[in-house]
Amino acid sequence: MKKIKVLIVDDSALIRHVMSEIISSQADMEVVGVAPDPLVARELIKQTNPDVLTLDVEMPKMDGLDFLEKLMRLRPMPVVMVSSLTERGSEITLRALELGAVDFVTKPKISIQNGMREYTELISEKIRAAANARVRPRRIPGSYSAPVALPPLRNPLTSSEKLIIIGASTGGTEAIREFLMQMPSDCPGILIAQHMPEGFTTSFALRLNTLCAITVREAHGDERVLPGHAYIAPGHSHLTLARSGANYVTKIDQGEYVNRHRPSVDVLFRSAAQAAGKNAVGVILTGMGKDGAAGMLEMRNAGAYNFAQDEASCVVFGMPREAIALGATNEVGPLSALPAMVLNYLAANGGRALRV
């Protein structure tokens, strides 16, 4: 069996040791080198030719972002960022994903041994996904072009009862950004479940809000779902959809993990099936695993119309593949085309206007 070769880059000797033990404990992985900073890492990359690089966000001698930018330009390879749970750490991590990092993990809490088994599984899954991921072309933060002009809805009220429900995981932060940046200000309300730890979704929503024509916010629960607004599940809770009289509202639930995730895409999709039925449009984007597939099938059975991102444009074609295999999707398309596909469907199938 060919093992996944992993190079660990972190300025903390303790983190390098813990990460080495975690990776070496997996039968299908091997640590081919450890580096305390990017300068050492640069030489080790030449010597070891790793399949995956784990990269600390904040390091001496050369910032992790500067190193990542040079790496993705000169020698593109799968990178998993290792981030601290801080506001600065989350902002840097989001910029790293923009530059082409496949995914990220938070730094292990060394003092809490009870959670190390789950943490080991998490890191191992992300490294496996990264090893098989499509490395995206590098993007310079702040270099985004203006959103592509898409057909406006015939009447802002025409689709006020329609909703767009999105689920994503690995590679999803950039896929969601690309999708939302093409949404016009009169689009239906959007609910999003993206696999992301607590502490990162706030920065993610704020970042998208500065880039998009629509309003993007982290969901807090009991909000009326408004056209031209997107609500992102907070990293600590499931996001669900409910009806309150004539309106749709968000609900936040800190219940059990589903498919080992909270927020879970399945939880959001199932709530959309129950609350919105045929008024929902489902979109499943890049991600590892199968979270969302069963929930999307429930949406389709309830009358929703569903879209999946195609394999060629996915960073990891896991979640869309599972949904397609279950027969949960109506159409499959590349990420660049999905916004227009969704809006064209909505323009042709507007729902009855809700009372305002």
TrEMBL record:
Class in the EC hierarchy, top level:
hydrolase
Q: Which GO terms describe its molecular function?
A: phosphorelay response regulator activity; protein-glutamate methylesterase activity; protein-glutamine glutaminase activity
CDD domains, alphabetically?
CheB_Rec, REC_CheB-like
Positions carrying 4-aspartylphosphate:
D56
Per UniProt, residues of the CheB-type methylesterase domain are 156-349
Question: What are the UniProt keywords, alphabetically?
Answer: Chemotaxis, Cytoplasm, Hydrolase, Phosphoprotein
Q: Which GO terms describe its biological process?
A: chemotaxis
Q: Where does the Response regulatory domain start and stop, copy by copy? A: 5-122
UniProt xrefs under SUPFAM superfamilies: CheY-like, Methylesterase CheB, C-terminal domain
Keyword hit for Cytoplasm: yes
Indicate whether Cytoplasm appears among the record's keywords.
Answer: yes
Looking up PROSITE patterns in the UniProt record yields: CHEB, RESPONSE_REGULATORY
Catalytic residues at S169, H195, D291
Top-rank taxon, per record: Bacteria
Record function comment: Involved in chemotaxis. Part of a chemotaxis signal transduction system that modulates chemotaxis in response to various stimuli. Catalyzes the demethylation of specific methylglutamate residues introduced into the chemoreceptors (methyl-accepting chemotaxis proteins or MCP) by CheR. Also mediates the irreversible deamidation of specific glutamine residues to glutamic acid.
Please name the NCBIfam families in this protein's record. PRK00742.1 (NF001965), PRK12555.1 (NF009206)
Quote the entry's note on domains.
Contains a C-terminal catalytic domain, and an N-terminal region which modulates catalytic activity.
Task: Give the family per the record.
Answer: Belongs to the CheB family.
- HAMAP family xrefs: CheB_chemtxs
User: What protein name is recorded for this chain?
Assistant: Protein-glutamate methylesterase/protein-glutamine glutaminase
UniProt lineage: Bacteria, Pseudomonadati, Pseudomonadota, Betaproteobacteria, Burkholderiales
The gene coding this protein: cheB
